[in-house]
Write a structure and sequence with these properties.
By secondary structure, this protein is α/β, with parallel strands linked by helices. The protein has seven helices and twelve strands. Strand 4 (about 65-70), helix 3 and strand 5 (about 90-95) form a beta-alpha-beta unit. The longest helix is centred in the middle third of the chain and has 14 residues, at about 75-90. The structure holds NADP nicotinamide-adenine-dinucleotide phosphate (NAP). Keywords: Cobalamin biosynthesis, Oxidoreductase.
Length: about 240
């Protein structure tokens, strides 16, 4: 039984650790970050070359099942995997961590809508945590941004007035609260990533009375089989082996 595990998340690393070495799991990373946290077991790095490339790769490698444990906002690779697995009739599972409850957040559908919300509300000091690919939408917004990302955004996507904070979670409540206060933040912009690693910023914002603008998740492809925990995903793989 050979499983392709599409990763780049803590859940994917945890699943690889649960299954390896009992199951032959090849983890796949996009190769976006120069020093990725690596899962145990074999790893391949880099894109497949679209739908056709992924289909060929699954055939060449004789992959028996695919588990997509990519980030909830990695919609392209998730769509590709769903399409290719349906075509090849390869068992396919999406491991999607539960979304955060929106609480009192202003929920928006895209980075562009989030930028409009910041501008329309006149927030002038903004904590922007939507990642390196999310900064471009805010370029024309007249505000100061504290931008937190794992790797630096491209210079031409950065708003004029900003401070860049390069770091990788997990974060804790006290640290997040201190950051909001130190920088006199007036609004927090976040994706609805879900998960415990970056959730403390939401509690800190609530405690500090800082409004939250939350970008909603892209929808999953229709009809995909989905679980929300590493345990369930491991059980699904084991059931495939047994069956
Ligand atoms: P994306 O927009 O869905 O994918 C863009 C392209 O990157 C895909 O078409 C594919 O290239 C390649 N790719 C993405 N994930 C891959 C993987 N696990 N293995 C091999 N190729 C992959 O993805 P993204 O949002 O840029 O995210 C890239 C990676 O970062 C994912 O592994 C994801 O789990 C992780 N990540 C993303 C976020 C986020 O906010 N988006 C946050 C944390 C971690 P080809 O078409 O050439 O196959």
């Amino acid at each position: 039984m050979k499983v392709l595990l599409l990763g780049g998340t803590g859940e994917a690393r945890a699943l690889a650790a649960r299954l390896h070495p009992e199951v032959e799991v090849i983890s796949s990373l996009a190769g976006r970050v120069p020093d990725p946290a690596l899962p145990v077991g074999p790893v391949r790095i880099g894109g497949f070359g679209g739908v056709d490339g992924m289909r060929q790769w699954l055939v060449d490698e004789h992959v028996d099942a695919v588990v997509d444990a990519t980030h909830p906002f990695a919609a392209t690779i998730t769509a590709h995997a769903a399409q290719v697995c349906a075509q090849l009739e390869v068992p396919h599972l999406v491991l999607a961590r539960p979304a955060w409850g929106p609480g009192s957040a202003i929920v928006v559908g895209s980075d562009t809508e989030a930028a409009d919300t910041v501008a329309n509300n006149g927030y002038s000091r903004v904590f922007l945590t939507t990642g390196r690919s999310g900064t471009g939408a805010f370029k024309g917004v007249d505000a100061w941004f504290l931008i937190r990302a794992v790797t630096p955004p491209d210079a031409d996507t950065l708003p004029a007035d900003h401070e860049l904070l390069l770091s990788r979670g997990p974060y804790d409540y006290e640290g997040e609260l201190a950051l909001l206060r130190e920088h006199r933040i007036e609004a927090l912009v976040t994706k609805n990533s879900g998960g415990a690693m970056t959730e403390p910023k939401l509690r800190a914002a609530a405690a500090a009375g800082v409004p939250v603008v939350m970008v909603d998740r892209p929808p999953l492809p229709p009809g995909v089989h989905t679980v929300t925990t590493v345990e369930e995903a491991a059980a699904w793989v084991r059931a495939k082996i047994a069956g």
